Amino acid sequence: MKVKSNFFKSLRFRIMILLVILGIVPSVIVAGSVVRGYSDRAMELRTSNVKSQCNVLNDVFIQEDYLNHPDSEAANSQLELLANVYNGRIMLIDQDFRVIKDTYGIDEGKTILSADVIRCFQGEESSRYNQRSQFLKIAIPIGNEENSGVMLITASTTEIETTISLLEQRAFIFLGIIIALVIVLSYVLSGFLVKPFSKVTKSIEDLTDGFQSGTISVLDYTETELITDAFNKVLSRMKVLDESRQEFVSNVSHELKTPLTSMKVLADSLVGQQGVPEELYQEFMQDITAEIDRENKIITDLLSLVKMDKKAADLNISKQNINNLLEDILKRLRPIADKRNIDLILDSFRPVEADVDEVKFTLAVSNLVENGIKYNVDDGWVRVSLDADHKYFYVTVADSGMGIPEDAVERIFERFYRVDKSHSKEIGGTGLGLAITKSAIAMHHGAIKVYSKEGEGTTFSIRIPLSYILQEVPK
Ligand code: ADP
After folding, report:
1. Average per-residue pLDDT in the chain?
2. What is the domain class of 13-162 according to CATH?
3. Which of 59, 108, 225, 382 is surrounded by the most beta carbons within 10 Å?
4. Does ligand 1 come within 6 angstroms of the Cβ of 418?
């Protein structure tokens, strides 16, 4: 199935967004603070300039006793000059809150009772900036202790505002360029950053034509290295599985053919001879029966395995006395063990009743005990023990046999896997027994473990819940 590529869901898009945020946010902050910093500084400067000019003027007022004689030429001309310089208006207010001078000449003689003026009489200067009308309003005390007043100056800030809006325009252009650049750069960079992942996909796609053809390797990032490593592991497992499957097919064909070939030879020789003595007939027919049995065994194993692949619904669960089941298994296998003088021992620690599928459970344990006999030494022993707690029952099958090499232990449950192919063929194994056992135990929601030491023996331990609860069998 081909995944439809959704750009907005991609890693590349997310990296892009991240880069855009990282690039644009600081630029906006820098541009904003430059404009704001300039505007604050310009207002501060203007205010302090106006105030210092007013202080100079105050000296003139005191000299001329202006508050009592507001018609002083020298003071008035300086007042006009200052009002012109700042393109504004100056008003002087005496102790009675009366306007004694207004450079606009509108409010002279009127009374002003504003909060700024009152505060100023209490000795507090104030300056306020009205951005909408672009004016700076300053109130400063004038005169001296005996005769004080307030000077109200309204200075225009239009030129400062013009510079600020010019600065803002520049900042906008600057931001526009930065945003465009960041978007282009983040698109290119994000593409570059996710490239190794595309490489991984491409390498995997190139492999799909045949997973036998090799491994993949993308070493650009630790992550891609990990992904490719994991993928290679899956790949090698697939290869192994595929190889063992192929090997199984050829083995099974061979195994199925061998009894057939022998039967054909035996039957041919009977058919080809005239007047065969009855004893020879008997003997050949017995041989043919043995070959049929072998053929049957292989086919039965294959069928058992296929059955184990089916769902849990095929289980035929009922309460069983496990002690009896184990006893029956050992009884059935004892004649085979006796042939090689192998001791079959059953240790039952307590009576156990559990929900099992009798046929499948018996098959699972029989396979283990049969293996214990098959891969044992003459005069050896196979010990089966049964124990239980409140939740599970435990069966162990231990033998004094040849053991399993360490590197093979992990693989013995694989279908068709046999440690020593030539040897186990002669022993009569199909490589399916443990796979069948494992599937049967899994169907009972149980677990199986193996401990083995080469040359000393092997122990399989099974744990199965006493009560069967219907649930999906974990794969
Ligand atoms: P087989 O039909 O060949 O016995 P199994 O699946 O039962 O197949 O076992 C797989 C392989 O595991 C065997 O070929 C054998 O090499 C090894 N094996 C299984 N059980 C034992 C055991 N008790 N002792 C030593 N080797 C064992």
Report:
1. 87
2. alpha beta
3. 382
4. yes
From the alpha carbon of 415, which atom of ligand 1 is closest? 6
Level-2 CATH architecture, domain 313-465:
2-Layer Sandwich (3.30)
Buried b (16+ CB within 10 A) or exposed e, 120-155: bbeeeeebebeeeeebbbbbbbbbeeeebbbbbbbb
Same fold, 13-162 and 223-305: no
Question: Could you tell me the residue ranges of all domains in the chain?
Answer: 13-162, 223-305, 313-465
Residue 474: pLDDT above 50? no
397 CB within 6 A, ligand 1: no
Q: Return d(Cα 346, Cα 281) in angstroms, integer.
A: 42
Q: Is the pLDDT of residue 311 over 80?
A: no
Asked whether 191 and 14 are in contact (CB, 8 A), the reply is no
pLDDT for the residue numbered 285: 92
Return the best residue to mutate from 298, 370, 371, 452 for the ligand 1 pocket (most ligand atoms within 8 A of CB).
371
Give the model confidence (pLDDT) of 44-103 as tens digits: 998 898 889 888 888 888 888 888 888 888 888 888 898 898 888 999 998 888 998 899
- Any idea which fold 223-305 has? Helix Hairpins (1.10.287)
